[in-house]
Amino acid sequence: MFAKRRVAVVGAGLTLFRRNLKETGRELAFEASKMALDSAGLTRKDIDCVTLGTAPDAFDGIHMKGENLSDGAGAYRKPYTRVFVGGGTGVFAPNAGWWHVASGLFDTCLVVAEEKMSSCFPHPQYAFTTIFDPIMSRPIGMNLVWIFAIEMHRYMHVHGIKKEQIALVSVKNKGNAMDHPCAQLPAKITVEDVLNSETLVHPVQRLDISPTSDGAAALVLASEKVAKEITDDPVWIDGVGWGIDSTYWTNRDLYYPKYVECAARMAYKMAGIKNPPKEIDVAEPYDPFDYKELHHMEGLLLCKKGEAPKLTEEGVTQRDGDLPINPSGGLLGVGNPIAAAGLMKVCEIFWQLRGEAGKRQVPGDPRTGVAQAWGDLMQYGSVIVLRS
Amino acid sequence: MSAKIKKYAGERIKTADLRAGKVPVVRWRPKVRYAWSTGIAMSRFLKELKNGKIIARKCHKCNRIVVPPRMYCEMCFRPTDEWVYVKDSGIINTYSISYLAADATRTDKPTVVAVIEIDGASKGIGIVHIIGEAKPKDVTFGMKVKAVWKPPKERTGAITDIKYFKPVEV
After folding, report:
1. Are A263 and A379 in contact (CB under 8 A)?
2. Which of A121, A262, A265, B118 is within CB 3.0–4.6 Å of B90 for a Cys-Cys bond?
3. Which residues of A touch B115 (CB under 8 A)?
């Protein structure tokens, strides 16, 4: 079932992540795309096709955002596809780019992800109301943080996890983001700061959540032949995976992200990874909430169920630990422009494997990295494995 | 790249400038309305709520009794087979305590929202609803709860015909 053509990442681009950026979505898409092309030494002429990822239209109030962003994403008169799997979009977009090239249909693909959340008033969270079932959920006043708090609480209950253990993730990621030039919320904070922050929906507090953000990210993908012509330092996409669980989320046990495991197993099989914690040198699991980093580490099979908080306490997940997790600073530190945040993670793995992450560089010459995103109604996992 | 690049694009607008109208913006408020068909399964479910009952569907292949009811089993991918009444009571599978409204404004009083595993449905099969008549700090995992219904005349065939679930004294 696996394609014979290897696909490489040969360039990456990113904009600042901020609330209320002056640039339009299209302008942000252009900036990230141009940076990615420049870094690969290519121009738009060298690009065979474009894959765009952007999350709910309701943030922007622009329906069919794909066409709205296309010119900024370099798609003018080219084969162009928008992919959309909610929060999972940012890692699914390069997966889609991968099959465009792996299939043999194209030699190069520009992958662009953009999000502008701050256009929505009074708060983009309100736009999320429209994702819920109109018969069962909306009438009781459903809001997005409710369901994540419900999931977090279940995870804590099943494994007996303390809030102090979860808060360590926020402390680590916001600290890591101090070294990220695009970061929106870099900060030196303590566990006490997290525990003393405003309770929004118990057990979720203010410092457990990533911010509202605008931003864009881009990658240039190339077939093996083209990649070897343009760079001595390609980073290979060796595994891709994606999958969805049931939309009847109140019929599932939320303590474990089975959908992430399904996506991870698909990607690991393709990459020939048999022992993920041993074979993966650096990981960027999706962390819109601090508990999600732990939840997703377990779904990615980087540790046993319920073991992620212990590894975090022991410092294993620090940038200089045995298994660095979110060295970028993640969504908690760098920011969360949904689709762009997911692709930012893939950019980070690319830079880490090229040894170009500067102050964020994890030691030990990492060769294999994984990025993951999570979306739809707490049910979608997308995973990508990169190797240098 | 990252370490090689010195400047990243992006110009932040100050929130104060935005609020003071110092930045050009175009505003728009949607004025659309929707009327959703409730479908085959949920039409029956809502009618039964009006009667003060919760109804589920059973799949004879996997033997699951599921609520909310559906006309097909997503696992076996075949039509479900029969309507089954389940109880209007259950246990709390997980819950949260909200101080946040849907528009992200803060609420004065906390709302407890829970996934309730419904008695008579298969293990782990729950619905989401509000918990009432309980102090948030007294709510626990595994707590037994029972539906508190609106008076029959006030019911409209909506999930809100159940006002909330309240703890059952055991």
Report:
1. no
2. B118
3. 150, 154, 250, 254
According to CATH, the superfamily of the domain at A7-121+211-387 is: Thiolase/Chalcone synthase (3.40.47.10)
Q: Which of residues 79-118 of B touch A (CB under 8 A)?
A: 93-105, 110-111, 113-115
What are the sequence ranges of the domains in chain A?
7-121+211-387
Residue A32: its chain B contacts at CB < 8 A? 9
Distance of alpha carbon B141 from alpha carbon B6, whole angstroms? 51
Contact (CB, 8 A) for A106 and A78: no
For the residues A22-50, what does the mean pLDDT come to? 97
Residue A382: phi, psi to the nearest 5?
Answer: -130, 135
Tokens of A192: 């006490």
Instruction: Compute the nearest-CA separation of A143 from chain B (Å).
Output: 5
* Domain ranges, ordered by start, for chain B: 39-167
Q: pLDDT digit string (tens) for A220-267? A: 999 999 999 999 999 999 999 999 999 999 999 999 999 999 999 999
Find out whether B52 and B152 touch, Cβ atoms under 8 Å.
yes
Q: Which of A125, A203, A354 sits opposite B1 (nearest CB)?
A: A354
ipTM of the complex: 0.93
